[in-house]
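Folded chain entry
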Amino acid sequence: MDLNKSFFTVIVISVDMFESSIVDERHFGTIQEAMIYKNNLPAELQGLVCEISA
């Protein structure tokens, strides 16, 4: 098991006037996969890419 391996999480957020909520959270092996997913989200949703060290 490689303890230095990182993965990338995309947290999808729906922003409303009075509150925001997390709609989805997905994990990816590479930053490129995470960015493709984030960039293809519908306009009403926002995505945040986070690198997580395992």
